[in-house]
Amino acid sequence: QVQLVESGGGSVQAGGSLRLSCVASGGTFTAYALGWFRQAPGNEREFVAGVNWSGGSTRYADSAKGRFTISRDNGKNTVYLQMNSLKPEDTARYYCAAGFSRVAVLTNRNDFRSWGQGTQVTVSS
């Protein structure tokens, strides 16, 4: 089971940018599709972005399209989420997740078996 540790969260004003990182250990990194989810207080955990094992395919939630970019560096066992043009409604705890897949991008949270502890993102207006 791979272990995941996120970093890069913080507080930013609307319109600003943040880059989240997630480092994996304890598994074969390229065996996993990776994803970013977020959860705001009182809300369910929702899919934000996903990337397949090679980094060649990505998927985004409608709320993230055009503003967020997911990428991975298999040499560093790291997945990133670049977030631009941040809005107050992006405020949430962001989680990195990994699920076994050598083909598809995963988007359903039930397909992910490993989760990080999360990193808080707060966007003020």
- Radius of gyration using CA atoms only: 13 Å
What is the number of beta strands? 11
Beta-strand fraction estimate = over 45%
What is the CA–CA distance across the termini?
39 Å
Average pLDDT rating: 97
Specify the biggest β-sheet.
7 strands, mixed
Which stretches of 5+ consecutive residues score pLDDT under 50? none
Write down the secondary-structure element order.
EEEEEEEEEEE
Question: How many helices?
Answer: 0
Structural class: mainly beta
The proportion of residues forming helix, as a percent range, comes to under 10%
Gross morphology is globular
Q: Any chance you could write out the topology, listing elements then pairs?
A:
Layout: E1 3-7, E2 10-13, E3 18-25, E4 32-39, E5 46-51, E6 58-60, E7 68-73, E8 78-83, E9 92-100, E10 114-115, E11 119-124
Labels describing this entry:
single chain; 125 residues; 11 strands; 50% strand
What features would you describe in this structure?
With 125 residues, the protein is mostly beta strands. The model has no long low-confidence stretch (mean pLDDT 97). It is 0% helix and 50% strand. Strands 2, 4, 5, 6, 9, 10 and 11 form a seven-stranded mixed β-sheet that branches. The radius of gyration is 13 Å and the shape is globular. It has strands at residues 3-7, 10-13, 18-25, 32-39, 46-51, 58-60, 68-73, 78-83, 92-100, 114-115, 119-124.
